Amino acid sequence: MRTVYEVIRRPVISEKSTALAELAGKYVFEVSTQANKHEIRDAVQNLFNVKVKQVRTSVVHGKVKRVGRFEVKNANWKKAIVTLAPGQKIEFFQGAK
Length: 97
Known about the structure:
Helix content: 25-40%
CATH architecture: 2-Layer Sandwich
Structural class: alpha+beta
Number of domains: 1
Order of helices and strands: HEHEHEEEE
CATH superfamily: RRM (RNA recognition motif) domain
Radius of gyration: 15 Å
Distance between the termini: 37 Å
Largest sheet: 4 strands, antiparallel
Number of strands: 6
Shape: globular
CATH class: Alpha Beta
């Protein structure tokens, strides 16, 4: 059994994910590539004390970049879009207004 911190690596803070959180109550996390939807749901519920309605996952493939004359590929990572129950909210930045 993986711990909460092994399942959820970090929240993805971007313009698109912030708009999803404000408009639709969906939050985006980078998660372990071995984690399944049930583990992600339990981890978010335990870590943030919220009720999760739905979890969607996708694998984001790493980009191929040039470093001089060599090509380097970034690692693949797994993204989870978590939909919360109506009225639920996660505050990532407590002091921000």
